[in-house]
């Protein structure tokens, strides 16, 4: 499926007041690899994007629909550099 991917960091200006915990309470400080946020998939669901496997552990702002994904990265510079992309993603069966 075609999705819109953006990138985020575990910082208070990009998350809520507890930036080191995802919505399912996974501790992510320092930033863990392969964490993705989506508002429609179950926690623990695997998603393949650009030959990498990500696991849903977080949610996005409620204004984002199911086709939006947010990938955790380690720095704001990296998030800015990667920007927003239109990518093909595959939701894997568990």
Can you give keywords for this protein?
single chain; 94 residues; mainly beta; six-stranded mixed β-barrel; 1 helix; globular
Question: Order of strands side by side in the largest beta sheet?
Answer: 1-5-2-4-3-6
Number of spatially distinct domains? 1
The biggest beta sheet is recorded as:
6 strands, mixed, barrel
CATH secondary-structure class: Mainly Beta
Helix and strand pattern: EEEEEHE
Number of helices: 1
Q: Provide the CATH superfamily.
A: RlpA-like domain
SSE layout and pairing:
Layout (H helix, E strand, L loop, with lengths): L1 E7 L26 E3 L8 E4 L2 E7 L9 E5 L3 H7 L2 E7 L3
Parallel strand pairs: 1-5, 2-4
Antiparallel strand pairs: 1-6, 2-5, 3-4, 3-6
């Amino acid at each position: 499926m075609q999705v819109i991917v953006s990138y985020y960091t575990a910082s208070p200006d990009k998350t809520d007041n507890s930036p080191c915990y995802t919505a399912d309470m996974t501790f992510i400080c320092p930033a863990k690899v392969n964490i993705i946020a989506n508002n429609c998939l179950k926690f623990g669901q695997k998603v393949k994007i650009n030959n990498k496997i990500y696991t849903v552990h977080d949610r996005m702002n409620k204004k984002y629909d199911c086709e939006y994904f947010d990938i955790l990265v380690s720095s704001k510079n990296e998030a800015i550099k990667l920007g927003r992309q239109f990518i093909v993603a595959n939701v894997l069966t568990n």
